[in-house]
Amino acid sequence: MPNEPGPLEPEPHYPTARTVADVERNLAAVRDRIDGAARRVDRDPDEVRLLPVSKTVPEDRIRLAVAAGATLLGENKVQEALRKHRALANLPVAWSVIGHLQTNKAKDVASFAAEFQALDRLRVAEALDRRLQAAGRRLDVHVQVNTSAEDSKFGLPPEELPAFLAALSHYSALRVRGLMTLALLTPDTDRIRACFRLLRTLRDRARESDPDLIGPGELSMGMSGDYEIAVEEGATCVRVGQAIFGARATPSQYYWPEQTDRPTA
Predict the structure, then answer these.
(1) What confidence tens digit (pLDDT) does each residue in 118-153 have?
(2) What is the full DSSP assignment across 92-159?
(3) By the 8 A CB rule, do 147 and 112 touch?
(4) Entry's NCBIfam families (predicted)?
(5) Averaged pLDDT of the chain
(6) Domain boundaries in the chain?
(7) Which pTM does this prediction carry?
(8) Taking burial as the number of CB atoms within 10 A of a residue's CB, which of 25, 102, 208, 259 is the most buried?
(9) Taking phi first (over 0 means left), then psi (-120 to 50 degrees means alpha), and beta for anything else, what does residue 42 get?
């Protein structure tokens, strides 16, 4: 039997990473905690991908992260991601767009992103597919699901997921990799776990009904404040920013409009 999941530890202070050594140390610390969480529930730590999130991080400090070994970085806002992509085009780094997307920004995402983790509307899927087809590209996507049932959050209602996945099969430029969610904003670890468990259950049901629609069935869930819980509940990708780069001056709701000011990615 798996070991019992560990408790959520108090939220740490996130000092600013100002050198390559700082970023290397923070990446190693987060990776160690991911590995520990995986082993607590008898999972292989290699199943979990760490996605460093560089939102609000200036370009000079992003260069430190690339020097520290980061090859894929997550950004919430398309405008910011595109600006950084252009400014850092000489670096071996790709970009994952992890925030809500409006259809008028689909052209930008289709032009440069390596993956898009917040797909929740067919209008966006159609716009992305059309732009990707024109560019001769394909794009890895995760479907965002609202597992907390909060009206303020983006993401599909869970009951709409099967039909949405079936509809996505018509867009050949989109490669569905799995699902993404944001947990409740609460100190109640049981309620956080419930969000992550629901996403895992939805993934498992999709695999049973039509595995071709869910791709490898990845689960992108967990950020700086709750990624260990997410790993214990089956995450295959955790999106971590502040624990790597340091606390942000910009309020979280600027990047996650549905969130309050608890540290997120």
Answers:
(1) 999 999 999 999 999 999 999 999 999 999 988 778
(2) S-EEEE-S---GGGHHHHHHH-SEEEEE--HHHHHHHHHHHHHHT--EEEEEEB--S--TTS-SB-GG
(3) no
(4) YggS family pyridoxal phosphate-dependent enzyme
(5) 91
(6) 20-246
(7) 0.90
(8) 259
(9) left
- Two structure tokens written together for 11: 């939220």
Which CATH number describes the domain made up of 20-246? 3.20.20.10
- Cα 70 to Cα 64: distance, rounded to the nearest angstrom: 9
Stronger pLDDT, 128 or 250, i.e. the higher one: 128
132 neighbors 111 (Cβ within 8 angstroms): no
Q: What is the DSSP code string of 226-247?
A: THHHHHHTT-SEEEE-HHHH--
Distance CA 141, CA 218 (A): 10
pLDDT for 18? 95
Tokens at 223, concatenated: 């950020």
Q: State the Cα–Cα distance between residues 188 and 193, nearest whole angstrom.
A: 9
CA-CA-CA-CA torsion sign (114, 161, 192, 7): negative
Are 234 and 202 within 8 A, CB to CB?
no
Q: Is 32 helix (H, G, I), strand (E, B) or coil?
A: helix
Instruction: With beta carbons less than 8 A apart as the criterion, state whether 144 and 121 touch.
Output: no
Residue type at 92 in one-letter notation: P
Residue 195, exposed/middle/buried by CB under 10 A (0-12, 13-18, 19+)?
A: buried
Query: Which residues lie below 8 Å from residue 183, measured CB to CB, with a gap of 6+?
Result: 147, 148, 191, 192, 195, 196, 221, 222, 226, 229, 230
